[in-house]
Amino acid sequence: MAEPTLAGAPNRPASVAPPAPQGCAPSARRVELHRAAEVVALVGLVVTQPLLDVLGRSPDFFLFHRATSRDVLVLVALVTLVPGAAVVLLGAATRPAGARVRAGAHTVLVGLLLAALAVQVGRQVTPLRGVPLVVVAVLAGVAGAVAHRRWSLPGRVLRVAALGPLVFVGLFLFASPASAVVLPRAHEGAAGVAGPGSHPPVVMIVLDELPLVSLLGPDGRIDAARYPNFAELAGGSTWYRNATGVSGWTPYALPAMLTGRYPSTPSAPHYSQYPDNLFTALGGLYDIRAQESITRLCPPSRCDQPVAPEQGLGVLVRESGALLGRIAAPVDSRIDPQESFREQTAAEVGLDAAEPVPADPKFRWDSLNDNQPVRFTSFLAGLRPADRPTLHFLHLLMPHAPWAFLPSGARYDAPDDLPNDGAGWADLARARHLAQLRYTDRLVGETLRTLRATGLYDRSLVVLTADHGVSFAPDWQGRGMGAIEHAPGEVAWVPLFVKQPGQRAGRVDDRNWEHVDLLPTIADAVHVRVPWRLDGRSAEQPARERTEKYFYDRPGERVVLPGGVPTRPAPSVPHPLVGTTVGEEPTDGTASVAHLGAFDHVDPAAGELPALVWGTVPRQVPDGTLLAVAVNGRVGAVVPVVPADPGGRRFAAFLPDDHLFRPGANRLDLYRVGADGTLRRLTLS
After folding, report:
1. 307 vs 616, which has greater pLDDT?
2. How many helices (H) and strands (E) does the chain have?
3. pLDDT tier, 523 (very low <50, low <70, confident <90, very high otherwise)
């Protein structure tokens, strides 16, 4: 018996559903694709573009970590694909909850990404920082999400912008300075022509971020009490006291030194961009033993560079993640991949010391060799006589920040977010720099001792200099254009010592030396003719007549500085309390010390000390209040409480005298210094 049907309805089985309208499934797929494209576009703007932009302008980041082309390409793929894919999958996880929940989740994702983008844009175009910037960014994200939900135009714009990541990758690979590292062009460079005369060994050390004025004593000479090994080198070499670097940035300064040409284009410090340089000029005649740090100017055909800091894809990903955190933060930060440049020590990489531990009573814990930078240790090990003329080259990131060494060679920890500029902070930065410079002086002494022990010292052309300086002038700290204009004597003038083979007596030459003069001077000393045009002139030629200095904050943009040997800044006068002993004082107030527990178990034999004390104080302690920091009853530093910054109402005290510490438990005390000199102890937590 047939089932009844409605009038006019087709007679068909009830179990068969009506066919779906044409185009329903494709529409759903299209919506999903549109949503994915919008997410990809926003992630590209929030993550891919800013990160590749910073890394693309920082080829030295990849050179320092000795990244291969494959490493960089994998990193670019991860930066481009993984964040977008992760957010897309996060949105797709809501699919089982239904179309309405899915649409709502997508709107939330769009709003969050727009807020993250607003943080970056707001930091560039507004003075807002911190919580106010976050509030404004959230409001912008909400407004953008509402507009995206209500109107179709924002979604269309985002879908077109989904091509952005491909554009960003293309610019990075083919148009950025880092492209020379990823896709280097083969170029052997021109070899120098050997002339008549001897070809002595060359030992060249380039230090980093070392102003000449940091070495000077009150008489304008090298301060032999603080820097005995620099003074010893000056006493047996020619000291070009009026020497200047040509740029405050190593990727421009070092190529100028090794090519004899002023910076003209913002090129990567790579042999494919600077094919004609010191290494190629001497490479046909000399064996090259080069330890470069953030350059790769020596081509593989001339030398290999086996010693490197931590390298590989893992460190690139980790440091890129830290860089993205600074880019995305709602507060000002130094968005600089160079912050990851730190010389690893021999102990950190398990490298045997190049020489026996020196019998030096000033270094109390026999840890000097363990604490030597591994690049320096390898350099020392290679200082041996050879049958062929040899160029021993070392670019060492010392006394460059991060500052981590006491004069004795012991290391200390410090937070990454301490400012270097502003009230109190600039003085702290200079003190830490000078302490690390005194440790660098010890490394210079190790070099001189090794050269003499191997017989190379008398036979060799020895060159020691720095690529640029750095300013610690209040409000003008660093190496940027402001520092160049307001403190050129600290940024441009650098130490330069040239000891000719057989030279015994020291002399001072105040000619207008610029670091483009270095290559022609070396070439003349080793009797090799450089086959390309040079901007510099050899020290064997008459001195240049102009007194002004040429300096380049940016390649091709010359800054003219007045000439003349700078005078050192007025040294800070230690507070009368420093070095005194204190007894029990009344307690009045509190303070927080970040690493208070480090004083409970001090092991001097390990070569590490808690020599930087930092923390916060409550509002009851006014700005400008002096705090005396004592270890085991002896005052090691007196510092001011500085105005609050994003890190809070902070103080930081540097204790460079390692004799303050003893094995085991050490007592740390913090005292508030009254206007009349009375002390009130703060309870620490």
Report:
1. 616
2. 21, 20
3. very high
